[in-house]
Amino acid sequence: MSQIPELLSPAGSxxxxxxxxxxxxxxxxxxxxxxxLRAGCQNLTRDELLEGVEFAHRRGAKVFVTVNxxxxxxxxxxxxxxxxxxxxxxxxxxxxxxxGVIETIRLDCTLPIHLSTQASCLNSWAAKLWKGxxxxxxxxxxxxxxxxxxxxxxESGLPVEVFIHGSLCSSYSGHxxxxxxxxxxxxxxxxxxxxxxxxxxxxDGDQRARSFxxxxxxxxxxxxxxRVVKAGIDSIKIEGRMKGPLYGATVTKVYREALDAWGTLxxxxxxxxxxxxxxxxxxxxxxxxxTGSLLGPAGPDSVHGHREELRQRTHDVLGVVAEVTETxxxxxxxxxxxxxxxxxxLPFRGAAIxxxxxxxxxxxxxxxxxxxxxxxxxxxxMEGVERWNVVRGRC
Amino acid sequence: xxxxIVVAHSKNQFKEVLRDGAKEVIVAPRELxxxxxxxxxxxxxLAKEIKAHGMRxxxxxxxxxxxxxxxxxxxxxxxxxxxxxxxxxxxxxPGALGWALEETDLPLHWIAETGNHNLKGLDxxxxxxxxxxxxxxxxxxxxxxxLETYAKKLPIPxxxxxxxxxxxxxxxxxxxxxxxxxxxxxxxxxxxxEESAHKGFPVISNDHGSFLFHQKHLGLLEHARQLQKMGxxxxxxxxxxxxxxxxxxxxxxHPDPKGWEELRASYPKGLICxxxxxxxxxxxxxxxxxxxxxxxxxxxLGEVIGVEKGAFLGxxxxxxxxxxxxxHYLIQTPEGKSIPFTLHTLKCADLSEVISLSxxxxxxxPIKGVGPGGLLLGATV
Lengths: 395, 381
Prior knowledge:
The complex is a heterodimer of chains A (395) and B (381).
Chain A: E1 6-10, H1 14-22, E2 27-31, H2 46-58, E3 62-66, H3 79-89, E4 93-96, H4 99-108, E5 113-115, H5 124-132, E6 137-139, H6 146-156, E7 160-166, H7 178-182, E8 200-204, E9 207-211, E10 218-220, H8 225-230, E11 235-238, H9 245-265, H10 271-280, E12 289-290, E13 315-324, E14 328-333, E15 337-338, E16 342-346, E17 353-356, E18 360-362, E19 370-371, E20 376-380, E21 390-394
Parallel strand pairs in A: 1-2, 1-11, 2-3, 3-4, 4-5, 5-6, 6-7, 7-11, 10-12
Antiparallel strand pairs in A: 7-10, 8-9, 13-14, 13-21, 14-20, 15-19, 16-17, 16-21, 18-20
Helix pairs in contact in A: 1-2, 3-4, 5-6, 9-10
Chain B: E1 3-8, H1 11-18, E2 24-27, H2 40-52, E3 56-61, H3 67-82, E4 88-91, H4 94-103, E5 108-112, H5 119-129, E6 133-138, H6 144-153, E7 158-171, E8 188-193, E9 201-206, E10 209-219, H7 224-230, E11 234-237, H8 242-253, H9 257-266, E12 271-272, H10 291-297, E13 302-308, E14 312-317, E15 323-324, E16 328-332, E17 338-342, E18 346-347, E19 356-357, E20 361-364, E21 375-378
């Protein structure tokens, strides 16, 4: 039977890291305070990285740390020391795109180096060149099809990782500098202003059209997992360190269950299961889905030609379980909900647990009619609920 | 010596620049180059003509290629190389570089214009190129002080765009195909964002994908002498038509401020020097986050995740965080207030009283002015 790929999930904070691991990620990717590509993201402090690595390792998961900015000379100061720190806490690999970063890392530590998708490695000759420069895994450019990924793996002898779900750049990664010139923010050092998502007026003489012509649809590769397995892809990656807990938990859980089904059955799972997973991937806000370039070059239908509309989500995130005591579930409230509403707890394994809110108390024990964001509320303890479960409700 | 380089898209264009001092001419076949217009045969013929005039024809192979495209392009490229009519091969895809190092014996120009903003990386590329390294084409986002350092330290000739369009975005997708009403005359339209002040970005769509440019061109000619002095060896001219390359070539021979102003005034696009004076494209990063909290986060013991007015604060302890009754702490609010307090009571999530807590969620008495997102710090911090 073919090997099931590693499931790699985003961890934009320590909390998201723990949730990703608990919802089934084999590995997570996270950034430290510097050197990554998400300047606006909370990222993890050193203490958090240490706890994150320990937490993941105790559960058999790995932690890859992104240092994937295209760094200027001044940015390299401290990188070597940071990498030695990461090695000392047992981080499993570094994700890089800049040759100067790779050179620095190779001098200062022995951690495996994964080439970031930001480097746009698109073909086997590029793969072999990067291998010669010290790269141990390729996170392929998102323009590469699954068939091409297999060839690149075979030709280079390196493990390959492909994106399977989430937002996509329509530019070749690392080759967009719109933000640098329009917003004064270096998109390749974490300052991307998402200019490709803006509305533009296109003009050609008298002709004019208003559009979102650069805004790519989101990637959704759930139905392609069979091909992923057949192509021998080593790791599938979920995009989205900046996204919220409902997204991270749901996408990780769905792909975990789907991969496990493939692992167990060696073939496509039952239709009803596949439909349920597809429904789960509608629970949070997203752009229209497409298969990107996984089956072949992304065509004109892979972008939002006209107004980009976020798909209506079917659920709201209501909170995250902060603690479970003998009698209560303490929920950190993210969105308001009222007494009588039916909520669903998303367990780490298995179907969502529906639960009408018959009673609700403040953290101090006062009866409440309504839970408000920024508070902790007590719900009656439910079977199967654990700390870090997501609480959601139908819209 | 600052050697000017021009691009020729036809024999006529080449003839226009022939007299004016360019020693090297880039030949860009449409099959291999992002903005190439020549067929492979035309490219070969032009290269031979350039060579016949004692100049160096440079073959531009600057598209990025997935495996499938790469294999097609190599088949198209081989006959061109077998003719031995090019003096160097210019590549931007690392795969093209790897292939060219193994499969050709031409000098190579590595186009390092995207990313590649540090000496370590550039030096490593130069080492990889070794004796085959004809040149590094540097990013035009580099400020002059970095250019000066690189020119001193890199053991390879260096090229910079001196005049021409600023490419902002390169996608393999045909992004204009969805617009029946916009039929891109000569493959170009302009795009104006309604959400940023920048208007009139030219967009080109061709067989290699879609390209978006800044509405202004880069113009570093007035700094040519400085570039030469610092050791930049080659300056590329890509004016909107050959007449501007010709003017630029003439100006480079006899540089004077008035001539530059005339050239600038007649140039059909605005000219900017981009990041040449300084590159500050990271100074806004701290503003993307709450700076006060960011500074405190490394030292925080916990974070306020819930507030019950007049009753409790819910604190999620952070790694290494420890709370003890009688201890002195302060809360740093997102708004910048630091509120000191002494911890008198501490409860676990099940409301049982404890004297200390090192993990999970703790409940402490209310503190006026504190909301969710505040960070709890030791009072000595």
